[in-house]
């Protein structure tokens, strides 16, 4: 891939086309189909009154997430984790990342003793599934909070509950070049790749960089962070428009 | 529901609107989004060269199916089977039904030593998910066989491989009235319900009737079968159009 | 098997010898060893006071069933499901069928908040294990209800509790001929096979027909149903005698 | 139970009635229903040609055992281990004991590269299920070896293969008195209980004594061993008669 | 190994060097690193107020044990049981043995409604891991009881709670010679091996002898028991010193 | 903790005392007990000839890691993952991190078709268990490579195999202050915490920062990275000394 253009002709700091379709399914309190190019994730937010036993009486709500992939979301079919009888390490890791990221967006005290489960199911994968999931889940969570507000079921003022927006994007170094929002082909070829979760105000929520196929110097890390912050700002804007 | 019209105003022998969207996702060799009213199932067909060990050298191909529901496909969120660490009885039962039904549509000798896995994932449920899955999976399987034909990877003549079309529909008795293609609200209220799988020629592949909330007489069974055969004929026509 | 007599010389509409031995084991509230020819199933009914949590306070009882096979009940040894760590699809499917069928025989309101588990363990298999299990479990359940009656632990009048008898039989088409109560050798060779559960009054509780190795026309279905209804009537008579 | 007679009126050194019914089921190469009073265990021996991978080419055969209880073999129903998804510690422990004991009875070199699985399923339990299982499994294994001999499938001379008989019995101290072959009621009340496996020649294969509800002195151990050796000799005689 | 000295030059009735290091880790209420030569087991005692649900209101405490091995405690790495998803038979069996043995040392009524879990993790294995575990766990349990005494959380007088000391040792016959405290090399070569748990007063708690690779006569059993009783007395002395 | 000194009186950029004890256990090819203050992890490296099937013939070696905690390594006892029957998300995540980090230290081509499993078992936990594990596992892996070199079993020159050293440390912001190498008490109180893996040359291998209890600005991230790089340099020096 050295010296070559990106597979889809984008510039290095350009996102793929992003769509956020609210209300994609009818049952959940919030549901968003998010697309980052060929990556397509269905994010649903399910509300239940009350919180898990260990949290009862705390006055605080709870938000958790589960990520999964359909078996043929990818180029080669994977066995179902239900059939294997266990959730894999990668799935666990991503579910935990999404949960932590979204909890950063919400004031659990203002939510009150309500629980929200965010299910992020990858229908089609082309790189960046976890970052698309976080970006979409934020909108679904926002809708679920709106649903609670309409029922006057929040402990705090509705506008206080979602106290920060969060969005996420991947960045990486391919053939020595820092690039934003990697597609699958680039992800596989990256020497370094990083997932960054930012707030709408440009602060960091999570930074996860890994150089399995290489190591990276401080200045490379800096340019990756620059790209990611700019990308997240664009995604935050897309979220604002979708929620308008 | 006694003496009342159907929830969506249909006549007793009327199907819900049916759509079969081919090529809904890009990776699988066959992929169909099938909709029976508010029921929405993504059916993908994944081809692999070769067959399971116990079948090697037989000259016969293999077709199998896996059915699953997204956790919030339904009105109330269900726990993921991957998280529970086991596939439930209902899931097992439906996966086996889909597999048997689709194997009736294909000449495994003409398929040659190739395997096809049919994944039927319910994205949204409103009754009849298993019958929609069978109806959609037939079209996805047909496309996967076309993909093999294009690669000259079939043992027999392409037109011999898919030797019968199969489609399926539910029927039931609600408030004493036999009805076709039950939605969820009717399914729950049915005294008797039956799933019927027919070939395009009008023969039966599977008949599964159950009267848990009541028992049924021979003439009731007969009128349910009449409704189902007519419904399957309409679905077979929709499949022909989709594949044209 | 074309044009040949049945392996055991029976006529096409003849049952195998049926025995129902009540009180086969000493601990359970009801226990029956049922034999359909070489098929031998131990059916026990275990009563517990109270119902599962989700049913408490409903005033209704609960009946459920679990089916299993000893590893060497069949010609070739199968691995134990306990050792594999999961219950297989076939086992699940049959357990659910037995549970539904037996719930059709009992008035759960008259039973009151009591639970009965029906364990059907196949000690020796020669075809028709699920139909033998249903037929035997009815007698075991009847005895368990009698046990409750003797303790005055029923909510309704004892004679109201078991409001219908249920029995089951398999039928199939072998070499074009419709036959009743298939043994293993016939089961394997059948083009179509069907399990039918009837009440003592001749109504249907369940009809499950499958044509994996072929498809079947309406008139074939009709003649299979005729055979099954007659077979179930004979089994109902055997149950009456056993309970006399 | 102090100073009282045994629940069934036996003397302290008396076995319960023992029966060994060969050929109880038709499929296995060896099958024995063994009864020690109210304890009833079905022991089957399943032969397969060849040995597990790790033993291939060794010239040695393999014998292993699996023990299990039907859910209502006991006074209170137990959950199935298949449903719980794991084999319990007690089951594991007994299966391993049976396997070791039976391997002591057979010359694995003379058996040649054949495998035998001994399934011991408790149909009804009244104490001593593991010792009944060992005693019955010996006879089933003997029959399976006879089956191999008839097919000339043994590596050594048939009479060399089963080089020792093994039988087992429980003993315990109840209210200070040493007793042979405890029934359930005694087992629960025992201060010390011991399971002893002996050869027909009176040597020990296994000695497992436990004093959870108390401790025991050397002379108590000695009198328990005396009782057990005498009991095993009687059981060995019963095995000889059954095999005659 | 016939006629040869022991691998480490000991006499047949000589223990390996034994060390009992109390307070090896800081968090548990009792923690002991026990070493029998190259065998090294970390025993921790974890106290919780209250008892499991089935024991509530009985006034009795509860003591249970879990044994495990680090994957590379042995010469060849074993797969982790957590990764395999199930606890193996050997692990189960040893955990149960340790639990029973330690319950013999404690007056559960005097303990009151408190629970203690004894975790015995083998850091390095060279034979006799279960007997070292029992010997070390006794000291850890003693410390945990002391911790409860200091908090005045016992139901009975502190000196009544640990009413007996328990220690354990392995013995075996190698090349016809009875030996005490087998190392791994001897364990593998033993014709007969036995694990014996004794109280400080010289009574038996558990006797488990097995002759998988042979059988054993009464006089051999007697000499093994003599060796074991003497070995346990030495270990009881080491426990007394460690607790002084 | 605002404005207060660190619990153990360290300065903000000071590591806890670090020890690396090589050869702590006798069986593994490499074994290191690593201590970061009260955190104590046993790291073993197990070599096997050959590689997993999917890698055969590639000429490349394989290095993988498994992390686990003893149940009472922490202040409150945790249930064993083997008993729960599944590996938790946190365990999975850390095992994967250790594996990736160590693979960055080794030239898998020079290693040749050999496999190394790094087991990192936490014997006592006081914060920073994953970073201690990486730091210790590097030394254990180095010893295992030395073992292979001594057997002339490497594909490349021994000095080429371990082509980079890797070490790891945690950093975090507590009460607004950036601190190095958090102990448990600080870890729980941190607004932001980050784990950083560096090479001996000061490049990054992994950067994982999370602000669940807050978000962090770019300058905060920068000062955390400065601290971490300096800390890793000290650890690299400790590794060099240990290996000298």
From TrEMBL, chains A, B, C, D, E, F:
Class of this enzyme: transferase
Domain Exoribonuclease phosphorolytic span(s) in chain numbering: 14-144, 166-230
Name the record gives this protein: Ribonuclease PH
Listed SUPFAM superfamilies: Ribonuclease PH domain 2-like, Ribosomal protein S5 domain 2-like
PANTHER family: EXOSOME COMPLEX COMPONENT, EXOSOME COMPLEX COMPONENT RRP41
An MF annotation (GO) of this entry: tRNA binding
Organism: Micromonospora lupini str. Lupac 08
Source species, domain of life: Bacteria
Role according to the record: Phosphorolytic 3'-5' exoribonuclease that plays an important role in tRNA 3'-end maturation. Removes nucleotide residues following the 3'-CCA terminus of tRNAs; can also add nucleotides to the ends of RNA molecules by using nucleoside diphosphates as substrates, but this may not be physiologically important. Probably plays a role in initiation of 16S rRNA degradation (leading to ribosome degradation) during starvation.
A Gene Ontology biological process term: tRNA processing
Amino acids binding phosphate: 90, 128-130
